[in-house]
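New to this. Help decode both lines:
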Amino acid sequence: MIHDISKKISWIKKNPIILQGIFRGLERETLRIKKNGIFSSKKHPYSLGSSLTHPWITTDFSENLLEFITPPSQNIDYVLNFLQDLHIFVTHNMKNEYMWPLSIPHFIRNKKDIKIAQYGNSNIGKIKYIYRVGLKHRYGSLVNTISGVHYNFSLPKIFWKQFNKNAKKTNKKEYISSGYLNLIRNYYRFGWIIPYLFGASPAISSCFLKNSTKHIFTRNEDDTLHLPWSTSLRLSDLGYTSTSIIDLNIMFNDLPSYIQSLKRAMQTTSNKFLKIGLKNKKGHFKQLNTNILQMESELYTQIRPKRTIKNGELLSDALYNKGIEYIEIRSLDINPFSPIGISKNQILFLDLLLIWCALIDAPKMDKLDWLLIDKNWKRIIFEGRKPNQTVYINKTKEKIKLVDISKIIFKDLEKIAKILDSCTSKKLYQDVCHKKILYFQYPELTYSSQFLNICIENGIKKTGLILAEKYSHYFYKKPFSILDKNTLEKETIRSHKKQKKMEEEDILSFEEYLKR
């Protein structure tokens, strides 16, 4: 079930320096709302810069769906403070608006009021806009406003070099990519720990309820629906979903097959999306194409391999040519108990889990493995806190209690925590381990349980607005710690100039650009 890694841990204990230099980055999404909770109908504020070219402040699906992006750093506090500075700047540049502090929005008056994000008249700006038009036609507008936090993580190159010393692979790109894919497979096997611990969307508005759901929800007076043991409905089929990785035969077993499956999905016509049509009667695009995936980013996964790409470069091509550079965790709900949507304790725990996933051997998987993985994730998402809850551990469908498997996993995590703490004078990683293991013995400590209790009492709308107002006041009073107003205002100006330059330098028609 879980391979013994005592020798690997002993090896790291003798060489703790190989874990020095972990890079981390954060991406946080949040909706701009009016003070009554309604979606903001205003365009992305000009004072925040160009959403196309600003490196740190942009938009996701809609004009009111902000996305904050931090540069990668080895310092956790730097990343968190950078993210907080972006929140401070945005708060001072919004008039009579708040940032919605939850993953799932509560309500809107009319779904037609959701304005798809605009990125100007450059060809790449039009691509980004039409891609989102396609998402609207394929999955609906409201579901695309669901927000999350993405955690970008990379292990030091020296770690992979030393880790690979006894392996057969000699090509740097090959052994690093193989290592990250091993990590990814293990994250799918055990990553349900994250929604169990940190899932914070156990309740939804009735507008998200689909007729086909088999779950029986309890309804509050304010139209809030919840399940008694759920953790993260954002990750369920009630949240944002696209074509299943199982259907696309994406197994993360090796880089060539992963890239091949991804490209096949982008080049294969979907009968379902073909019915939508490419253009409307006025000749306006309804989607970029009628393929299974319009673009690589349309594939919704809990974790995915990434690397830095150049303008106009496909991620799949960059991965093929240069290999995997880092991984992106996408299964984090907005933390409603943090003004910036994520806490330091969460990052510390993610570090431990991801290092552990890199060390554990992960056999290559087939569809049966993925079906069991899917069942485990759904079990935790819908009933994670259910007393004596179990998960599958092998193809024979043998089960183990969450509390029992957590003890096995945390035994390793505590050893890794001691090694990481040995390089400092603090016991931050060990403290996180000691606290989070209690969540399995006492499910009422989990984020989802704590948040659900508040929601049952106040409802989603009131809870969200109370927190939104609280955090708005917090950011107004908080001073900048890394960035400053002048730097951010200069970046705003620079981003608008860059967008204008891109629009002026376009020489291809949009149709020709799209073909290329």
Remarks:
- The CA atoms of residues 61 and 144 lie 6 Å apart.
- The chain has a mean pLDDT of 93.
